[in-house]
Amino acid sequence: MARNDAEAVLHDLFVRGLGGDAAAYRDFLQKLSAHLRAYLARRLFGWPDEVEDLVQECLLAMHNQRHTYQSDQPLTAWVHAIARYKMIDLLRAKSSREALHEPLDDELAVFAESATEASDARRDLSGLLETLPDRHRLPIVHVKLQGLSVAETAKLTGMSESAVKVGIHRGLKALALKIGKSSS
């Protein structure tokens, strides 16, 4: 399918989906997923494991922001803009994660084992988590702290599994930023 044909098909399905045609919207999401997978795979050649997660984040963002699309504009330009922002978020997160793997000095207070410090840490973590919106805080609490699966958390919170994954990712990123700001 030529580029203009793909644009026309995606645009038609999306506009029909916005108009309430559930089958057209489902077809749009399937075709868009394949389009995004190819688009992102070309750009994230060294990180094939990240592509599928990024596709899901893009689809979720596009669904949530569908009201911002102007139907007289090319759909793929709008889609690619969202995908680029999500890719930039991923690259930023990757670079901050790499910093987390730097070796720790033995003298750091991180290695202290007093009950008081553990209590302080729990209080600090609770305070940090309280600063997050529920859509980020609840997935982190249930999956990362309580050990529930993504599916169990989705069922418990009424969120989709994709929303739970995105909530964890964004919540942890927000916490990392808050911790980084407080330590500088």
UniProtKB/TrEMBL annotation:
According to its UniProt record, what is one Pfam family this protein matches?
Answer: Sigma70_r2
Q: Which InterPro entries match?
A: RNA_pol_sigma-70-like (IPR039425), RNA_pol_sigma-70_dom (IPR014284), RNA_pol_sigma70_r2 (IPR007627), RNA_pol_sigma70_r4_t2 (IPR013249), RNA_pol_sigma_r2 (IPR013325), RNA_pol_sigma_r3/r4-like (IPR013324), WH-like_DNA-bd_sf (IPR036388)
List each copy of the RNA polymerase sigma-70 region domain by range.
36-95
**Keywords in UniProt for this one?**
DNA-binding, Sigma factor, Transcription, Transcription regulation
> Which residues are in the RNA polymerase sigma factor 70 region 4 type domain?
124-175
Which protein family is it in? Belongs to the sigma-70 factor family. ECF subfamily.
Question: What name does UniProt use for this protein?
Answer: Sigma-70 family RNA polymerase sigma factor
